[in-house]
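User: Can you recover a sequence for this backbone? Please restate the input before giving your answer.

Assistant: Of course. Working from this structure:
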């Protein structure tokens, strides 16, 4: 069925990511999903068929629809995040096909950071492995509200229900212990198309939805207006022209909430207050604006405001702090160590900081905390305490994924070291870690 522009205008949007270990079949699943939902153009399919034939394959390798890098096709693995956009009459989709290799877990963090659903694949022959646990942990840390377990390659285990049931039970128990709110298990064979778009004829014991049916029906909410307003300043507009001699506007994208003309606001971290005198959107003045619109605010008072400041309602402004406690996923090859000098980037604000303590590192096998590891290496998940040179207006990640997240950056070369989520780690956590800040020596220039 052809999807019309009129239908697209009335359908909802779902952002989702795929994850799983190497050779679990993520790219094949995505290719099958695109192919069977009639979301592949004829010339794309012809190019895939030609590339498959050149590799000696009789049938088109649908994984090539997403694995576009030469190294990916040569090695048969996904390296970079591949984004695909497609639609059905019921919903529009933005899909992030993320790498499975442990070396590229950082790219899985990137792909899942904006996702509302994560599809985690498991090879039916291998069951839940360490990388599966790592991906579920990342999804839980990123507060992805919906997780789908796709037990793939059921054709290679003779479509045995006990195999699926055992994997589903182990996976569900592990994900639930991390606080994942919704878990749906689906047995599939991406290679032949079982339960991807069409129901399988080989698994009559399964009565649930196909992958596409679940993607089309899972409830999603894009209502960022439920949260308090947060407006990070990206740019200060001062034309100082004859036409606009006194214009002073603050441009940016509303991260959450609603802003109205006449509303009393606070500018952070300074704490100065003013009133919204005007809101400019697409060259016109409006009385109200909401997330995620990009607008320019005009305030009633001339305040010292610059890029990185945050405007919030005076009655519901976040607290500012210089002591950040967070759960992080370390993504760099070089380790993160206690006492290390870093830059902390939060929304549009970047400040100097120092790693004061690394209280614990998560052990994925049993979810225990390894105390005082001293450092985090690539793909480690752990708790950190960071001291910043200047105060930042940081929300808890559980309250706002946009203003509760941050990056730690190497000040020497700009390399992203760590992705952080402020506040409690997993949704199941009911108390903060009791470890206190470390006593590592501090560099004099970065002693805050």
């Amino acid at each position: 069925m052809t999807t019309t522009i009129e239908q697209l205008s009335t359908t909802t949007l779902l952002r989702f990511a795929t994850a799983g270990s190497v050779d679990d079949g993520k790219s094949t699943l995505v290719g099958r999903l695109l192919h069977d939902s009639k979301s592949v153009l004829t010339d794309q399919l012809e190019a895939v068929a030609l590339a498959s034939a050149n590799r000696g394959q009789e049938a088109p390798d649908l994984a090539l629809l997403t694995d576009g890098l030469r190294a990916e096709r040569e090695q048969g693995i996904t390296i970079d995040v591949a984004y695909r956009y497609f639609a059905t009459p019921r919903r529009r989709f933005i899909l992030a096909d993320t790498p499975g290799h442990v070396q590229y877990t950082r790219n899985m963090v990137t792909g899942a950071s904006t996702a509302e659903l994560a599809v985690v694949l498991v090879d039916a022959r291998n069951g839940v492995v360490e990388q599966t646990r790592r991906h579920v942990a990342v999804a839980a840390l990123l507060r992805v509200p919906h997780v789908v377990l796709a037990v793939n390659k059921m054709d290679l285990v003779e479509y045995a229900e006990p195999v699926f049931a055992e994997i589903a039970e182990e996976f569900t128990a592990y994900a639930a212990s991390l606080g994942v709110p919704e878990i749906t298990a689906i047995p599939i064979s991406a290679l032949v198309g079982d339960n991807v778009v069409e129901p399988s004829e080989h698994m009559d014991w399964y009565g649930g939805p196909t992958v596409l049916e679940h993607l089309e029906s899972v409830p999603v909410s894009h209502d960022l207006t439920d949260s308090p307003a947060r407006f990070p300043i990206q740019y200060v507009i001062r034309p100082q022209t004859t036409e606009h001699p006194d214009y002073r506007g603050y441009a940016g994208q509303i991260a959450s909430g609603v802003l109205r003309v006449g509303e009393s606001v606070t500018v952070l971290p300074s704490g100065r207050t003013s009133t919204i005198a005007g809101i400019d959107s697409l060259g016109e003045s409006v009385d109200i604006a909401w997330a995620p619109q990009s607008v320019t605010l005009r305030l009633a008072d001339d305040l010292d405001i610059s890029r990185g400041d945050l405007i919030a309602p005076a009655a519901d402004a976040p607290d500012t702090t210089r002591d950040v406690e967070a759960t992080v996923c370390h993504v760099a090859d070089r380790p993160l160590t206690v006492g290390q000098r870093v830059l902390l980037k939060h929304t549009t604000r970047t400040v100097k900081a120092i790693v004061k303590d690394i209280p614990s590192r998560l052990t994925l096998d049993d979810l225990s905390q390894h105390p005082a590891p001293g450092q985090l290496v690539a793909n480690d998940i752990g708790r950190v305490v960071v001291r910043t040179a200047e105060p930042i207006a940081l929300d808890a990640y559980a309250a706002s994924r946009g203003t509760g997240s941050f990056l730690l950056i190497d000040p020497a070369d700009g390399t992203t070291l760590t992705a952080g989520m402020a506040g409690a780690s997993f949704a199941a956590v009911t108390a903060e870690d009791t470890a206190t800040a470390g006593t590592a020596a501090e560099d004099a220039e970065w002693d805050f």
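That completes the design. The first helix runs from residue 5 to 10.
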